[in-house]
Write a structure and sequence with these properties.
about 450 residues, alpha+beta, Uridine Diphospho-n-acetylenolpyruvylglucosamine Reductase, domain 2, Alpha-Beta Plaits, 15 helices, 16 strands, about 20% strand
Length: about 450
C-alpha cells in the first residue's frame, strides 16, 4: 500500500517535493515563530494544473493543505504544525501580461510585491499598495489577508486593486472571478469573498491587478505632538487643506528603539507622539498651504515642533523613523497585534488601552505605532531578557484577551490587516457576531466541502 506522499509523487512525477528537515522548518512557519513546524512535505507546483491535481489528491487522501506565499504573516496563518502538506506558490512568480488599455497587470501569486512595483513602473504606472515587507511578501499572501500598508489613506487596501482572480477551490475546481471587468452586477462577486479569506476557501493561482498613475510630487513632514487628542485634530486639519498620501504615527518609545538601531533624530527634545505625513506638493501654492496648516496647528497647541524634508534623502531619513520600527524591535522577539478602529475613536482607545496594559503587566514594554489615516494601530509587546518564551507568550495571550475586550467596547477589530490565523482565533467573537461566524462556517463548507484548506485557521473547525 503506497503512502499518500508516494502516491502524490507517482501521480505528478514533475512536481517538486521537498522533505528535508531544513525545508520543512523553513516553509512550515511564518513570522510568528510560536509553533514548531511539522508538515508532511513541501509541494512547489509550477502550473495551475498542478495545483488542481494536488487539491484533488488531497481530497481523495484526506490530507490537509496549508497554502504558502512569502510567509511574512504575523497571525500564524501559514503555519503547518500537524502533518499538513505545504503548498508553496514560490515557483509561480511571473508577470503574465500587461494590458495598456485596461491598465492591468496579470501576475502569478508567488511574485513579490516589490517585483510588481518594478513591473508597473516599466509601463509608467504604479501598483499603489505598499508596506515595509515589500521585498519578501507575495501578492497571493497580500490578497489572502487584504493587506493594507502605509498608503491606505490615499489608495485603500489590496481589495480595491484586484480586477480579477483565478482561484482553485477546495475541491480542485478552477474559478475565474470577475475577469477584469470594471462593472459586473451579475450576482455574487466571489472575488471579494476570496480576498481576506486566509487560504480557507481557495488558492489564488492568478491575479489581475489594477494600476494607476504615479502620484504627483510630494513633501514629507515630521511632526512632534504633545498629547493624544492632537492626533485626530492635526489629521483633520491636514486632510482638510492637503491631499494626503500617508499619515503615520508612533510614540516616543518606538522612536527610542529606531534611533538605537541607527536612524537619525530629526527633532530635538522629548515629545510623546510623532507623525510622519506625506502630501501632494505640486507647486508653490500647495507647499505654502502645507506651511499654513502647520502654523495653524502650532498656534492651536496641537503641534510642538516639526520639520519638512528638503531633499529625497531627507524624506527617506524621516520615513525611516517610521518604517524602521519593525526591524528595530526584532531582537526583543515582540508579540505583535494589529487592530483597527474608526479614526475618530483612536484617541479614546489610546487613552484607555495603554493604561490598562501598564496596570496589568507593568514589567512588559509596549511599543505603539500605526496608520492614523485608516485607524490601524500596531501593538508590539517586547519580551524581557530574563523571561522564558513560554511565560512571555502566556502573559501576552492574557494581554490580548484584555485588548480584544477593550476593542469590543470601542467598536474595533482585533485584526486590521494580518488576518486571524491561529493567533487571534480565540478572539474572533470580539469582532464578529455568533451569527456571522456561523455563516462564515457555512461559506467555507461550500468552497471546501472536505475541510482540507488551512484547517484550524480563522476559527476552530466544527
Amino acid at each position: 500500500m503506497t503512502t499518500p506522499l508516494t502516491d502524490l509523487a507517482r501521480r505528478l512525477p514533475g512536481l517538486r517535493l521537498l522533505t528535508d528537515a531544513g525545508d520543512l522548518e523553513h516553509y512550515g512557519r511564518d513570522w510568528t515563530r510560536r509553533w514548531t513546524p511539522a508538515p508532511l512535505a513541501i509541494a512547489l507546483p509550477a502550473t495551475i494544473e498542478e495545483v488542481q491535481d494536488i487539491m484533488r489528491w488531497a481530497n481523495e487522501r484526506h490530507v490537509a493543505i496549508v497554502p504558502s506565499g512569502g510567509r511574512t504573516g504575523l497571525s500564524g496563518g501559514a503555519v503547518a504544525a500537524n502533518g499538513e502538506l505545504v503548498l508553496s506558490l514560490a515557483r509561480m512568480n511571473r508577470v503574465l501580461g500587461f494590458d495598456a488599455v485596461d491598465r492591468t497587470l496579470t501576475v502569478q501569486p508567488g511574485i513579490a510585491l516589490e517585483a510588481v512595483h518594478t513591473a508597473a513602473r516599466e509601463h509608467g504606472l504604479i501598483y499603489p499598495v505598499d508596506f515595509a515587507s515589500r521585498g519578501s511578501c507575495s501578492i497571493g499572501g497580500n490578497i489572502a489577508t487584504n493587506a493594507g500598508g502605509i498608503r491606505v489613506i490615499r489608495y485603500g487596501n489590496t481589495r480595491e486593486w484586484i480586477a480579477g482572480l483565478k482561484v482553485v477551490a477546495g475541491n480542485g475546481e478552477l474559478l475565474e472571478l470577475n475577469r477584469g471587468l470594471v462593472k459586473n452586477s451579475s450576482g455574487y462577486d466571489f472575488r471579494h469573498l476570496l480576498i481576506g479569506s486566509e487560504g480557507t476557501l481557495g488558492i489564488v493561482v492568478e491575479a489581475t491587478l489594477k494600476l494607476t498613475n504615479p502620484p504627483p510630487s510630494s513633501q514629507v513632514m515630521l511632526l512632534a505632538l504633545p498629547d493624544l487628542d492632537a492626533l485626530t485634530q492635526v489629521f483633520a486639519a491636514f486632510r482638510a487643506k492637503l491631499s494626503l498620501q500617508a499619515f503615520e504615527f508612533f510614540t516616543d518609545v518606538a522612536l527610542k528603539h529606531v534611533l538605537a538601531n541607527g536612524a537619525q533624530r530629526a527633532i530635538d527634545g522629548e515629545h510623546p507622539y510623532y507623525v510622519v505625513t506625506e502630501f501632494d506638493a505640486v507647486d508653490e501654492a500647495s507647499q505654502e498651504r502645507a506651511l499654513e496648516v502647520f502654523g495653524h496647528c502650532v498656534e492651536k497647541g496641537w503641534v510642538s515642533d516639526g520639520v519638512v524634508a528638503q531633499s529625497e534623502a531627507q524624506a527617506a531619513a524621516l520615513w525611516r523613523l517610521r518604517e524602521g520600527i519593525t526591524e528595530s524591535l526584532v531582537p526583543y522577539k515582540p508579540y505583535k497585534n494589529d487592530v483597527s478602529l474608526r479614526i475618530g475613536e483612536v484617541p479614546a482607545f489610546l487613552r484607555v488601552m495603554p493604561a490598562r496594559l501598564a496596570q496589568e503587566y507593568p514589567q512588559l514594554e509596549v511599543v505603539w505605532y500605526g496608520h492614523i489615516g485608516d485607524g490601524n494601530l500596531h501593538i508590539n509587546v517586547l519580551k524581557p531578557a530574563d523571561m522564558a518564551d513560554a511565560d512571555f507568550i502566556a502573559q501576552c495571550e492574557r494581554a490580548t484577551k484584555l485588548l480584544a475586550a477593550t476593542l469590543k467596547e470601542h467598536g474595533g477589530s482585533i485584526s486590521a490587516e494580518h488576518g486571524i490565523g491561529l493567533v487571534k482565533r480565540p478572539y474572533l467573537e470580539s469582532t464578529r457576531s455568533v451569527a456571522e461566524i456561523a455563516l462564515m462556517r457555512g461559506v467555507r463548507k461550500v468552497f471546501d466541502p472536505n475541510g482540507i484548506l488551512n484547517p484550524g485557521k480563522v476559527f476552530v473547525d466544527a
